Amino acid sequence: MASAVLAVLGVGVGGSVLAWPTSGQPGEIVGGTGVDGQGLAGVPMPPSVAGRPTVLEDPGVLGSDPTLLHLSVEVEPAVLAALQPESSVGGPAPATGWASTAGSEYLSLGSPIAVDFWAGPWALEQKRGFTRQGGVTVNGKPAEVYVAARQRLIVWEPVPGVSVAARGINGTTEEVLAAVAAGLRFDRVSSCAVRFASPAPPPAAALSRCDTNVTDEGVASGGRLVYRRADGSTLDTRDRGGEPSRETPNAEVAGHPANWRTGDVQGVSGDILTVDLPGGRNVLVLITGSFTREEVEAFVAGLTWS
Question: Which of 150, 153, 173 is nearest to 164 (CA)?
Fold first, then answer.
């Protein structure tokens, strides 16, 4: 398998977005401004956060605060074009996705041809169902290669104590996977910016996970905030973009049509609220345990949107 060591250029600057605070208690969500960044070849990046330690400076910060992201990727234009051909001829750059929770972080680049990264405890879990097939080096570090169907996985330790898995899916070639893996960076801290914000977390709960998506137009739909109580109860809020709710309204939240039902989302069962909001927005909330429907309705009614 080919490997690559990629040149690194500076990070660009763009406009403002709704961003996480750069100070305050974890789980606090406020409106603010951030600096949009683009890596080499225009890889969309979340807003940067200054003054916070990087993984290179302190590996323990990885996944320690769900409002912050510590992975980034910079790739050559030809590699980017292999993930999304139109990016090489002035079309949109491939979307990036990010997540942070419980000591692990996630980054994805491209769709449907894509490379996903997991860093921290999540990384070693990705080997399940894969078969070991030799080894390579990534930026001079030894790495293991695994295969399963049309997927290929590279697992290595780019920073002492930090395991990373890079997975190529939907036809990503060995060469492209190796090149993107070599472009993974740990020298930047970004904000897990989403399109919605709350003046306060739900009662007796703290933020435990944040997911965001970024395109060349800025922060996109698909953002997710998960709050957790000490008893394990969760409140999982997801921005479904302009996708209209397919459920028949049986409730109202702040005057907007809503639907309550019992079901599951990605294998997690609980009460599910969907609300159609002005501006073509739709939000889904899954609750488990001690969270009440009244608490969730109050929380959704207080959300503000960028």
Answer: 153
The tens place of each residue's pLDDT in the chain, 306 residues long, gives 333 222 221 222 222 222 332 223 333 222 222 334 555 556 889 999 999 999 999 999 999 999 999 999 998 888 888 887 554 445 556 789 999 999 999 999 988 889 999 999 999 999 999 999 999 999 999 999 999 988 999 999 999 999 999 999 988 999 999 999 999 999 999 999 999 998 888 999 999 999 999 988 889 999 999 999 999 999 999 999 987 778 899 999 999 999 999 999 999 999 999 999 888 889 999 999 999 999 999 999 999 998
Q: What is the pTM of this model?
A: 0.84
